[in-house]
Recover the amino acids of this structure.
């Protein structure tokens, strides 16, 4: 189940008419609040607007903080480049770093972290936040197993129901290794690492809200290394998972006597990258 699967009705009320109980706070947490959590904050604002429209998107208070953040530091330049590349170039939307505080945790209705270690720090600072604190990828995974039947259609009521449903699903779905929940910190690394982090964040948010993510679309044109694949399932055809070309493309490697080796991608039905045939230089499917 994803939040985007539940229908809702557009209301007529003005923003200032919504009481605090009719609002929903989301707090994203990473280490320095300069790479991962700012990306999540900026992307969440855009995707909420795309999913629910501006009238209801303003009912969500989205913020971010860092467990080791120094107040007032700007967003990382390479992280900023990832947001600018997908049209999010409004400097006013780029938050300055903010240290994580108990008040910020307490005022949020949902806390989403980049790593399991951050989740532990949040709960250590505010033990009562255990039921509303998840890794971002963990929350997306938990929501995928929730049935949408009977959930409310109002966006804020739906968000509150989603937190309860995700909390109830803890322990009921198979556990995964930390690497499946953690989003690696790109701080101090190259642009590829920053793109991989932005891609992982946007993929999780898109799965939760059921809307296309601009960073995933950008990933189709920029394939950071290493290329990672998963087995294609119904509905995944042509979509990206992690890095690499879409699952429904064919990748060919050919030898030219004058120009050497060339790499081409064509639409097809091949499910994974494969090994190279030494005679024809054609890339064949490989069972994994």
């Amino acid at each position: 189940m994803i939040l985007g699967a539940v229908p809702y009705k557009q209301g007529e009320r003005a923003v200032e008419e919504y009481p605090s109980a009719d609002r929903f706070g989301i707090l994203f947490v990473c280490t320095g609040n300069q790479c991962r959590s700012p990306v999540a904050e900026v992307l969440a604002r855009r995707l909420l607007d795309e999913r629910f429209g501006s009238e209801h998107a303003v009912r969500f208070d989205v913020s971010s903080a860092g467990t080791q953040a120094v107040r007032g530091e700007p967003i990382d330049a390479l992280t900023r480049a990832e947001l600018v590349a997908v049209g999010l170039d409004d400097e006013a939307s780029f938050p300055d770093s903010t240290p994580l505080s108990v008040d910020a945790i307490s005022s949020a209705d949902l806390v989403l972290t980049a790593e399991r270690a951050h989740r532990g720090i949040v709960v250590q600072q505010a033990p009562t936040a255990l039921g509303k604190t998840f890794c971002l990828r963990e929350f997306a995974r938990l929501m995928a197993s929730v049935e949408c039947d009977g959930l409310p259609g109002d966006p804020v009521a739906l968000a509150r129901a989603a937190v309860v449903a995700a909390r109830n699903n803890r322990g009921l779905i198979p556990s995964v290794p930390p690497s499946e929940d953690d989003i690696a910190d790109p701080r101090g690394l190259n642009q590829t690492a920053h793109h991989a982090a932005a891609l992982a964040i946007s993929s999780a948010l898109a799965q939760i809200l059921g809307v296309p993510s601009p960073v995933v679309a950008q990933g189709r044109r920029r394939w950071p290394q290493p290329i990672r694949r998963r087995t294609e399932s119904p509905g995944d055809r042509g979509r990206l998972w992690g890095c690499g070309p879409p699952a429904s493309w064919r990748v060919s490697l050919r030898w030219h006597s004058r120009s050497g080796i060339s790499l081409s991608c064509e639409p097809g039905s091949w499910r994974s990258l494969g090994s190279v045939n030494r005679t024809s230089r054609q890339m064949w499917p490989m069972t994994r």
